[in-house]
Backbone:
C-alpha cells in the first residue's frame, strides 16, 4: 500500500509493482487495482489535509533535533509547524534548519514532550512558515477562523478605507482601523455585546460599562484618571487656564480648578439637599456645609467639634403693640443675635417693661442678672435690678419709648445670652439704659415683650425684631 508521500514528482519514477505504481506493460487486470489505490491514498491525504508527509526518514539526534538525508531546507523552514511521529504524536515549530552534507539538521521547539529514538516520521503544516510567523511578500487570505498558538505581530501601518485591519508603527504602536456603517471600531465581550465603540468617522470613544482605574496619577499628567485605596477615584490634569474643567451638554464650563491652585470655581449655583443634621462624626480640620430641613430651609456650617452655625441669615418680624404682651415665636435655630427695636412704645400703666427670651415656645421668667436705669433731665436717675426679664426702666404711662435692645449668644454650650440696650423718650428728655444676661434650658426660639406686673396694656407703638447668625 502506497501513499502520496511514496510517490515521485517525476512521472516515470512512479513505476512500482502494482497496485503501488504503474509500470510499463502492466497487465490490464492491474490497472483497476492501481487506480483504486490512488483513490485511497488521495482520500487518506484529504482526511489529514492540514499536514504534508514528504516521505522523509528522520533520524533523532537529540531531544530537539533530527536529521534528514539531503538538502531539504527549502521545505523545513523556520517557523513552520511540524508533527513528529514518535512514541506518541508530538507537535511543535521548526526553530532552525541547516544543511551540512550529506544531511539537513532540523531543530524543533515542541509544545510538549521530547524526541526519542522512536521517531519514525515527520509531517509539515500545510501553512508554511511565511504564513506561520515569518515574512510573506504577498497577501494571506484565510476562509474561516485563523488560530495562532503564538502571537500575531503586524509590522506595517493601516490605511484609510481599511474595512478591518490591525497594524503597527514604531511611533503609534498597535493600530486598529475599521470602517462600518454605524461604527468604525467595535469591541465586544464574550456575550457579543458592545463594550467600546467608535462611531463611523468620529473620534469619540463610547464605553458601554464603566472605566476602572487601578493606579495613582502623578504631577505633570496632562489628563489622567486614577485610583488608590486611600484617595479613591483621582482626576488629574494640566492646562494653561485650568487643570480640571467639567462641562455640561452645551459645552459650557460648570466646574473649573484654575491651573496650579486648590480653588474650585462654580459657573452656576450650588444646590444642596436639605437634611435633619450634620454628619454624625465631624472630621478634624474640616467644616461641613449643609441645608437644614426646616420651612423655609436655611444654610448651616458645622465645625470639627460638631458645633452648628447658621450662615449669614438675617430675618425680621414686625407687629403693633397691644394687649398685655406680644410674642415672637417659632424663631429658627442656631441664632447668634437678636435686635428688638421699639418705635413709640407706651402702656396704660407705670409698670416697667420687660423683654423675655425663651425656648420651646415658652418664655424664661427667672434667672436674669441685670439692671436698668432711667436718666432724665433735672431729676435724679432711677434704676432697679431685674430677674424676670431684661428690664426697661419706664415707670410712667406718659412715657413714649424709642430705641433698641441687642441680644447676643455668649456661650453656645449652655445657651447663655447677654443683652444691652439704649433707648430714649420722645415724651421728655431722658434715656433708658439696660444690660442683662440669662442662660436658657435649650435653643432660643421665642421673644416676649411684656410688663413687670403683667397687667398693664400696650396702647401705642410697634416693635420689630431682627435676628440671624
Residues:
Amino acid at each position: 500500500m502506497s501513499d502520496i508521500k511514496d510517490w515521485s514528482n517525476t512521472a516515470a519514477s512512479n513505476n512500482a509493482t502494482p497496485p503501488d505504481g504503474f509500470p510499463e506493460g502492466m497487465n490490464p487486470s492491474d490497472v483497476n487495482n492501481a487506480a483504486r489505490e490512488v483513490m485511497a491514498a488521495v482520500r487518506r491525504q484529504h482526511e489529514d489535509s492540514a499536514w504534508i508527509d514528504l516521505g522523509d526518514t528522520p533520524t533523532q539526534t537529540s531531544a530537539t533535533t533530527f536529521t534528514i538525508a539531503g538538502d531539504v531546507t527549502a521545505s523545513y523552514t523556520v517557523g513552520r509547524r511540524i508533527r513528529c511521529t514518535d512514541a506518541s504524536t508530538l507537535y511543535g515549530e521548526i526553530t532552525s534548519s541547516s544543511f551540512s552534507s550529506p544531511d539537513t539538521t532540523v531543530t524543533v521547539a515542541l509544545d510538549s514532550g521530547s524526541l526519542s529514538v522512536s521517531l519514525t516520521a515527520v509531517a509539515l503544516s500545510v501553512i508554511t512558515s511565511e504564513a506561520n510567523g515569518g515574512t510573506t511578500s504577498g497577501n494571506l487570505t484565510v476562509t474561516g477562523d485563523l488560530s495562532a498558538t503564538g502571537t500575531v505581530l503586524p509590522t506595517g501601518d493601516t490605511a484609510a478605507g481599511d474595512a478591518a485591519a490591525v497594524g503597527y508603527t514604531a511611533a503609534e504602536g498597535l493600530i486598529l482601523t475599521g470602517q462600518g456603517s454605524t461604527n468604525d471600531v467595535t469591541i465586544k465581550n464574550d456575550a457579543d455585546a458592545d463594550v467600546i465603540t467608535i462611531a463611523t468617522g468620529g473620534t469619540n470613544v463610547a464605553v458601554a460599562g464603566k472605566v476602572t482605574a487601578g493606579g495613582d496619577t502623578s504631577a505633570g499628567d496632562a489628563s489622567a484618571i486614577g485610583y488608590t485605596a486611600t484617595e479613591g477615584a483621582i482626576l488629574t490634569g494640566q492646562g494653561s487656564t485650568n487643570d480640571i474643567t467639567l462641562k455640561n451638554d452645551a459645552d459650557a464650563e460648570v466646574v473649573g480648578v484654575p491651573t496650579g491652585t486648590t480653588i474650585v470655581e462654580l459657573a452656576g449655583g450650588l444646590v444642596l439637599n436639605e437634611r435633619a443634621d450634620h454628619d454624625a462624626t465631624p472630621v478634624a480640620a474640616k467644616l461641613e456645609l449643609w441645608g437644614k430641613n426646616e420651612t423655609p430651609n436655611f444654610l448651616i456650617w458645622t465645625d470639627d467639634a460638631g458645633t452648628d452655625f447658621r450662615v449669614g441669615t438675617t430675618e425680621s418680624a414686625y407687629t403693633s403693640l397691644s394687649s398685655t404682651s406680644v410674642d415672637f415665636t417659632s424663631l429658627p435655630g442656631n441664632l447668634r443675635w437678636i435686635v428688638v427695636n421699639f418705635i413709640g412704645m407706651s402702656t396704660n400703666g407705670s409698670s416697667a417693661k420687660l423683654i423675655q427670651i425663651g425656648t420651646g415656645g415658652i418664655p424664661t421668667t427667672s434667672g436674669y442678672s441685670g439692671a436698668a436705669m432711667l436718666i432724665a433731665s433735672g431729676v435724679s436717675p432711677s434704676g432697679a435690678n431685674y430677674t424676670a426679664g431684661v428690664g426697661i426702666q419706664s415707670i410712667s404711662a406718659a412715657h413714649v419709648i424709642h430705641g433698641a435692645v441687642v441680644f447676643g449668644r455668649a456661650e453656645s454650650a449652655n445657651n447663655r445670652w447677654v443683652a444691652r440696650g439704649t433707648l430714649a423718650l420722645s415724651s421728655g428728655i431722658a434715656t433708658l439704659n439696660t444690660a442683662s444676661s440669662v442662660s436658657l434650658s435649650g435653643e432660643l426660639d421665642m421673644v416676649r415683650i411684656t410688663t413687670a406686673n403683667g397687667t398693664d396694656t400696650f396702647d401705642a407703638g410697634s416693635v420689630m425684631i431682627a435676628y440671624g447668625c
About this structure: Residues 3 and 41 are 5 Å apart (CA to CA).
